[in-house]
Design a protein that fits this description.
Layout (H helix, E strand, L loop, with lengths): L13 E4 L5 E4 L8 E3 L8 E3 L2 E4 L9 H8 L9 H4 L10 H15 L5 H11 L18
Antiparallel strand pairs: 1-4, 2-3, 2-5
Helix pairs in contact: 1-3
Length: about 140
């Protein structure tokens, strides 16, 4: 989950300026399964250089679904920059499977990777009722 920081608070390893649609994949051994897609609200995000940043070539947006499906399969333990460009990923050719996966890809691009993201978006737009909760004296006090 992203957290807001000022420039002076950022670690030296924060190097990538995210753009909507960027795909970030962990560089460190056994971290390839740790990846995310930068959603629509990421204009001011800065991402650690502990991730490889990938961008789809112009006109290749239909391959994003295939890339995301491949990132969720086993078999990738470590990625070097040299090896990253040599990986051949399978295409998802079954239309039913593509239709099943596409809403999830669309949600990632919209910045809604979790139910909490979607609820937060709906709350911000006023599309969900807000519960008036009395402020707590401490974060450990139950509501």
């Amino acid at each position: 989950m992203p957290s807001s920081m000022r420039g002076w608070q950022l670690p030296d390893r924060a190097r990538h300026r995210a753009q909507a649609g960027d795909i970030y994949v962990g560089k460190v051994w056994s971290s390839v399964g740790k990846w995310f897609v930068a959603g629509q609200q990421c204009d001011d995000w800065i991402v650690t250089n502990g991730f490889h940043r990938m961008r789809l070539k112009e006109g290749m947006n239909d391959l994003l679904l295939d890339l995301i499906a491949a990132l969720n399969t086993d078999g990738l333990a470590d990625l070097s920059e040299e090896n990253l460009v040599d990986i051949v990923l399978p295409r998802v050719t079954n239309p039913t499977t593509r239709a099943t996966l596409q809403p999830m890809v669309d949600a990632l691009l919209a910045g809604r990777s979790t139910v909490a993201n979607l609820v937060g978006e709906l709350l911000a737009k006023g599309d969900l009722p807000v519960i008036d909760v009395v402020p707590r004296s401490s974060h450990v006090v139950q509501v």
